[in-house]
Amino acid sequence: MEERRKAKRTELKSKIVVKRLDSNTNEEVDIEIVDVSKSGVGFTCDVPLTIGAVYQSYLTIWTKEVLHAVLEIVRIEKKADTFAYGATFVGMPE
Fold this sequence. Notes:
Layout: E1 10-11, E2 15-20, E3 28-36, E4 40-45, E5 54-60, E6 66-79, E7 82-91
Antiparallel strand pairs: 1-3, 2-3, 2-5, 3-4, 4-7, 5-6, 6-7
């Protein structure tokens, strides 16, 4: 598979809750992070999400610090009974 990320991936085993921002739904979804880079995050989720959808997230990193970030879904792949997603950070504090 061709590498398309501009930044190096780092594995991060963590869970976060994402909340959709670009619609009136108040859906919260639990996801499991597979890897993260400075430009985006790869994760799995049992719930189908929409490509192009924008979600608010709170990401707990290895230092136990919680980062608020806005994610846009850019890739979806169906895997057995779950979905694999790729998302880019579209809003994040410095």
